[in-house]
Amino acid sequence: MTYIIDGNELADSIRADLEDSVETLTDEDITPGLATVLMSDDPASETYVSMKQKACEEIGMESFHVEIDPEAPAEELYDTIEDLNEDPEVHGILVQLPVPDHVDEERVLNEIDPMKDVDGFHPENVGRMVTGNARFKPCTPHGVIKMIEDAGVDTEGKDVTVVGRSNIVGKPVANLLMQKTDNGNATVTVCHSRTQNLEEKTKNADIVIAAAGVPEMIDGSMLSEGQTVIDVGTNRVDGELVGDVEFESAKDVVDAISPVPGGVGPMTITMLLYNTVKAAGLQND
Ligand code: GUN
Q1: Residue range 243-272: average pLDDT?
Q2: Comparing C-alpha atoms, which of 60, 9, 2, 10 is closest to residue 31?
Q3: Cβ atoms within 10 Å, residue 168
Q4: Do residues 275 and 118 lie in contact, with contact meaning Cβ atoms separated by under 8 Å?
Q5: Which CATH architecture has domain 139-265?
Q6: Residue owning the nearest CA to atom 1 of ligand 1
Q7: How far lies 247's CA from each of 138, 192, 253, in Å?
C-alpha cells in the first residue's frame, strides 16, 4: 500500500504543540504576532495571505494585515516594512510574493529586519542557512523535510532529486538536505528546465521533490518502486489546484507520496507559524 503523506494531519499535530508555546509566551505577556503585507490583486495571493492570517488566529497568535494598492509607488511598501520593523507587537513580517514589477523585490527582502524575517529570505538568513547555522528555515523546504520524516524515511546517504531551482523552494531544500544534520546527509541532484534526461534523474532517486511549477509534469512512468515523492506544485488549471506530479499514475508506483491539495500547502503555513513563535522568543531574549 502506498503511504499518502497527509499534510493536514501532520500540520495539525505540529500546530497543537505550537499552540502550547503560544500560551506559554502569552502568559509572559508576549503574544507572537505576524504581519502580512499584500501588494497584489492576484486572487491566489489573496487566498494564501488570508489562510496565513486565519492559521495565526487559530493558535492564539496576533495577526496584522496591511494591504497596499498594487499601483501605489514602491516607497509605500518600503515605508510599511520600516514601520513594521519598529512595531514591538510584530514579531514576524511576511510580504507576499510576487510584488508588482515596479517594486524591487531584492530591496523588499533586504528591508525586512532579519530578526523578523520569518520567510527566511533576507540575505543574512540565507547565508546563515547555507552555512548550517539557520535562524529561520524557509517555510516550504522545512515543511518538505518534516513530511519526509513523517513518511519514516531517513535521508542519510539517500539520493534526492529536486526538480526546480527557485530561491523559495528548490535551492534551499537542496541545501538543507545536503547538510551534515539529522534530516540531511543526502546526495542531492537539482534539475531544471535545461536538464537533460530528467526521467533518468527522477527514476533513479530514492526521494523526488517536485517544485518546478509545471502542472503534472512528472507521471508514474518517470518514477520507480520504493520512492518517496513530495509534490510542491500549486498550479491553477481551470480553477483547480494541481501539483507538479500526476498523482493517479504516480501513486501506483511509489511507496509514499504527498497529494495536492492537502500536502505541502498546510505544512508551509505551519512552518511559518513555527518561525513566528521562534521570532517572538528570540526577540524576548
Ligand atoms: N509566494 C509564494 N510562496 C511564498 C512564500 O513562501 N513566502 C512569501 N512571502 N511569498 C510567497
Answers
A1: 98
A2: 60
A3: 19
A4: yes
A5: 3-Layer(aba) Sandwich (3.40)
A6: 97
A7: 25, 20, 10
Q: Cell 486572487 identifies what position?
A: 43
Asked if 29-115 and 139-265 have one fold, the answer is yes
Tell me which residue of 140, 138, 179, 143 sits closest to 160, measured CA to CA: 179
> Which fold, 29-115?
Rossmann fold (3.40.50)
Instruction: Please state the ipTM of this predicted complex.
Output: 0.96
Grid coordinates in use for 103?
A: 517594486
Distance of CA 85 to the CA centre of its chain: 22
Q: How do residues 33-63 score in pLDDT, each as one tens digit?
A: 999 999 999 999 999 999 999 999 999 999 9
Q: What is the pTM of this model?
A: 0.97
Atom of ligand 1 nearest to the CA of 97: 10
Query: Ligand 1 center to residue 96 CA distance, Å?
Result: 5
Ligand 1 nearest-atom number relative to CA 139: 6
Print burial letters for 178-198: b (CB count within 10 Å at least 16), e (below 16).
bbeeebbebebbbbeeebeeb
Selection from 179, 164, 280 nearest residue 230 by Cα: 164
Give the separation between CA 271 and CA 258, rounded to whole angstroms: 17
What's the whole-number average pLDDT of the chain? 98
pLDDT score at 285? 79
52 is catalytic: yes
Q: Which of 122, 123, 76, 121 is nearest to 102 (CA)?
A: 76
| Binding-site entries for NADP(+) | 164-166, 234
Taking the C-alpha atoms of residue 29 and residue 73, their distance in angstroms, rounded to an integer, is 37
Q: Are residues 225 and 202 in contact, defined by beta-carbon separation less than 8 angstroms?
A: no
